[in-house]
Amino acid sequence: MTTIDYAVLVGYFLVMIGIGLWAMRRVRDQEGYFMGNRGFGKLLQTFAAFGAGTGAHEPVQVGSTAWSSGLSGVWSALMWLFVTPVYWITAVWYRRMRHLTLGDWFVERYESRALGAAYTAFAIVFYMVYLSTMFSAIAAFAVPLLGFETGLFGWELKYTLVPAIAVVVVLYGVLGGLTAAYWTDLIQGLFIILLSVLLIPYGLWALAARFGGEGQRGLMDGFRIMHQRVSEDHFSLFAGPSSGEFPIQYIVSLTLLAMIGIVVQPHFIATGGGSAKTEDEARIGLVVGNFLKRLCTAGWALTALIALALLAGSAEIAANPDRVWGVAAREILGPLNLGLVGLMLACLLAAMMSSADTYMIVTSGLVVRNVYAAYMNPNADERTYVRVGRLTGLVIIVGAATFALLIGDVFAQFKMAMELPILFAAPFWLGMYWRRVNRYAVWGTILFSLLVFFILPVAVPLANPGLRSEPALSTTTNVVEKTFERPATAADVARYEAWLETGGDDGSRRTGTAPPEAVLGEPITITMVSGGQGIYWREGTRPVGRQERKLVDAWTTDEGDVRVYRQEGLKYGVGSLNVDLLMYSAMGIDLSGVSKATLETLRLPPRLLMPFLVLLLLSYITPRGHLDALTRFYAKMNTPVLADPEADRLALERAYGKPFSSSRRKLFPASDWEFVKPTVKDVVGFLAACAVCVIIVGLLMFIANIGS
Known about the structure:
The structure is a single chain. The chain is built from 27 helices and six strands. The chain is mainly alpha-helical. The strands form two sheets. The protein has a four-stranded antiparallel β-sheet, with no helix packed on it. A two-stranded antiparallel sheet has the order 3-6. The protein is globular and about 80 Å long.
């Protein structure tokens, strides 16, 4: 990076801090600090949802999977696309709650302060672990851009970069509250969009300049050259080299899991619509903001394909595909000397910081409202509550940064954080629609989920270590080899040369699987190996002693040959026990023939359905909640929000006075179920969002075929 790059980066940091200082003077009370006085319109709500939903790890994750596996690797992030139409419905809930935190909702619905505190504990663990992955990711991504791997005192770069980022987030987020977070999210959202498209035109021009002939310097020439240098199977959205990693059933299962769990992620009370002026602002902001992210995902995948065409011979990327973004930015933007490398790093920082600030403020709000005010000092003044909120936000960011510096296996922590919401998902969904659910049933369901899905998988192997080498539990899925031929492209040649550069022919320093020896235009044999996954252990199995492969099946298709092998030999289970998959074994179902994606898909039914079934059963055998509290709750949730706070307060008072006036809208009037008839706006908005999902998929396929 040059002086102008560092100037861009420093300028970005100063602007963020300046916004925090400006917003600090506007904060007077809790509603101002945690919800920005619920005065945000469509624009700020859109970029709040966009910024909070886009993490720094996602562009690089898509870049890495698309580099290695083609356009179908975009599903590593695009799988969230089909959840977006549901946001048109859920955004109304968060605004009608009229709460400062989701913990307040659990307290009101289930008449339990303890549930609010339990939800707060979940939020603290969730965000400390989740944010730590972003801190670690940004440190790794910055290495190729900065050009060095050590920071102050000769330490690894992350020990300098992570604390520096944490300080900036604390300064503008802790000082200015949600108002500062939303205004910075607006700026950072523009940076994220810039991140998503900046490398595309410059990369296409670089392709045309390096590999085009006379008069071939335009964008369309770049697209054409990209298709010449990269094999066509890399441009298929559903049938590329990695299509087996994201089959339809896996995409559907992840969509369902995301839809069930994301509604209880703590920041949704703010970015999901609770901080908006009205329900319309809430809906439009949440849906449009998330569709912006989906469009950016397409840009990330296209950037990776451009980088593959241009930099397939990079030994640095061959050794670590996660560095696609950093190396591409350095090689494409660096020679221009316009400060664009510094701008790219600022964009990556924006992707992380726009999430961190919102998460920090929302979690500090939970601590203030559901722990400090509920148990320690319920009669404190507003300034005290805001001060405690600022101090709590500081602790959360420091904790996340500490996790990032101390925990080695961050990806495993990230996966755990993504599964934590199942603890509260069933109580939230059924609590919205069924009067019969009560706090006793909710506590039982939370304890059941915690025990079965989080405690037993770790505790059982600790209590009986011999289970790890038990043959019935250390089995793996079959190994599948698919072999086919196609003409070698320039990218294949460059990849093979890069692989030789990293180790040579003796194999002593090679990284990864050797690519096939390639001569441009000549047929090459591609062998794709999948399977061999440990079934019952979260981190798979390790071989003990000699291992053998036994051929169990073989066939030939139009695309090539397929061979299926069974791995034989002693193995040792690693990580926690997949208790949910043991249920299939107990039913006599053989899982050795399924793919890795299918294994993950099969984990869905137990984790998704069992908490709901347990909650339904316990709700029938435990006492109901108080009638007056339930009637008041559902009267509020069925009362539309008015933009004027005083008018909205009066509307609520009228609803409380006639709580059954909305019962005529119920689909099942004489039951405990609170499903209401959808309005025209509900139906039209949902269908329109579904149509946009189809358009985005079609747009991605269209862009991928430009120049083919």
